[in-house]
Amino acid sequence: MKIAIPVDEQNLESGVCPSFGRAPYFLFYNTDTKESYYLDNSAVASQGGAGIRAAQVIADHGVKALLTPRCGENAEEVLRKSEVLIYKSIPGTVQQNIDAFAAEQLILLSDFHPGFHGHEK
Amino acid sequence: MKSKGVKIAILSGKGGTGKTLVSVNLASIAERSVYIDCDVEEPNGHLFFKPEKVWEEIISVKIPFINESLCNGCRKCVDFCKFNALAFIKNKPYVFEEVCHSCGGCMLLCPEKAIGEQEKPIGKVQKGVSGNVSVHTGIMNTGEASGIPIIKNLLSESILVKELPVFVDCPPGSACIVMESIKDADYCILVAEPTVFGVHNLNMVYDLVRLFKKPHGVVLNKCLDGENPAETFCTENSIPILGRIPFDRELGTLNSDAKIAARENEKFWILFASLLETVMKEVRHETTVNPQR
Fold it and tell me: Which residues of chain B have pLDDT under 70?
C-alpha cells in the first residue's frame, strides 16, 4: 500500500511536518516494496488553497493513506472524495510513524480545522 | 477647476486610527455630501449616521459550475487555477466555491465549453439618508475571499451624484481592497497616530498614495503635548499636515457613543469645518497643478 507523510526534511529520521498543506516535502512510501521517494510540495507558496493543492498531489500519486498530525477541511474533502484515508501521526520520527502504521497502531484523524486564511498562529 | 464633485479617500495603515471619525465628520460638515463606507469587512460609518429610508442591493460574483456530461476530464481548468479553487477528483473537476476568486479563467480555457457560470451572493450594498449626507455602506458576508466586487459597485460612477463631494472611508491597511477604494480618488487624507507604531503604518499608506500618484495630506489624530513622531515624519518628507485632532476625552466619549462630534458640539464643528476648508483648498490647488485629475 502506498502511503504519504508531510515531512520537514528528506530523511526517515526527521519529524513529521506539523502542517500538511504547507509542508516543504512529501514522503511517498510503499509498505509492500519498502520503496520511497520525496517530492517538493508545489502548494507551499500558494496564496490560498494550499491544502486543496497538496491533497490533489497526494491523490494523483495513488496514495491510499495519509499520515499527518492535522488537516484542513478542504483538504479532507478532496482526500475523502478521492478515497484516501487520513491517519493521525504520532510524535516521533517519520520511520517510527511508518512502523506504527504497519503495526496498525495509528488511528484515523477525526477533527479537521477550518482554513487559517493568513491568521495561522 | 474641480471642487464640488470631488472624491476624497480617507485611509490609514491600520484600524482604529480615526478614518471613520474624520470621514463622518467631514461628510457632516459639507453642505450636502456622499459618504461611502468601503470597509466592507467591518463597516461602522452607518452606526454614526443611522441612515433612514435604507434600501439594499445584493452583490453577487460569478463562479463556475461544471457540466459533467460535457467534461472530457482534460484537467486544463484544474492545472490553470492559481487559487487552487478546483480539484480533480475521480477524473472530474470539483469547485471549492469559497476559494474561487471569480477570475473566469477556467471558463475561457475549457475546450469542451463544459464550464458555465452561476451567481453567488457575497454581500450587499445599503443606501440611505442622514440629514445632509447620503450614506452608502458595503457589507461583505463573513468568510468571503474578496470585497472588491462590493467596492466596485459602491464606487461605480453611475450611482454617484456628480455635483456632491464624496468621502470614501477606506478599509485599513494598504492591500488591494484599499487600492480599489482610492483608485478614482482626487485626493487622499492619511490619518495618523502620534506614535512610532503610527509612523510605521503611516509610511505604508504614504508609499501607496505615492505609487498611485495621488495628491495627499495627513491628519494628525490623538494629538498630545510634546513630541509627535507622525508630525516629525511629515516634516521630514514634506507631507502637508491638513489638521490636528486633539486627544480629547469629550471627543472620545462622543465617538464611542457613535455620535457625530461635529453635529453635537460647536467646538468640534469648528475643528472639522476648518479641516474641511484646508482639504478643499489643497484639492483645488492640486487639481489646478495636476489638471489630468
Answer: 1-4, 158-160, 290-293
Indicate if the alpha-carbon torsion angle B197, B200, B201, B202 is positive or negative. Answer: positive
Q: Same structural domain for residues B52 and B167?
A: yes
pLDDT value for A113: 81
Query: Is the minimum CB–CB distance between A82 and chain B shorter than 8 Å?
Result: yes
Do B203 and B85 share a domain, yes or no? no
Which domain does B161 fall in, by range? 7-59+123-289
Q: Tell me whether B82 touches chain A (CB under 8 Å).
A: yes
Q: Is B2 contained in some domain?
A: no
Chain A residues with beta carbon closer than 8 angstroms to that of B63: none
Structural domains of chain B, count: 2
Query: Given pLDDT bands bounded at 50, 70 and 90, which one contains residue A45?
Result: confident
The model carries a pTM of 0.77
Summary mean pLDDT of chain B: 93
Closest chain A residue by Cα to residue B146? A117
Q: Which cell goes with B169?
A: 472611508
Whether residues B96 and B180 share a domain: the answer is no
B85 interfaces chain A, CB cutoff of 8 Å: yes
Q: Assign B253 to helix, strand or coil.
A: helix
Find the CATH number of the domain harbouring B66.
3.30.70.20
Does the residue B217 lie in any domain?
Answer: yes
Together in a domain, B95 and B233: no
Task: Report whether CATH 2.40.50.140 matches the domain A2-102.
Answer: no
- What the block records as the C-alpha cell of A117 is 486564511
Residue B152 lies in a domain: yes
Q: CB-based contact (8 Å) between B94 and chain A? A: yes
Contact B186, B289 (CB under 8 A): no
Which residues 6+ apart lie within 8 Å of A52 measured at CB?
A21, A43, A74, A75, A78, B84, B85, B87, B96, B99
pLDDT digits 0-9 by tens, B80-118 = 999 999 999 999 999 998 889 888 999 999 999 999 999
Q: Tell how far CA B123 is from the center of its chain.
A: 15
With CA atoms as reference, the chain B residue closest to A54 would be: B84
- On chain A, the residues whose CB falls within 8 A of the CB of B96 are 49, 52, 74, 77
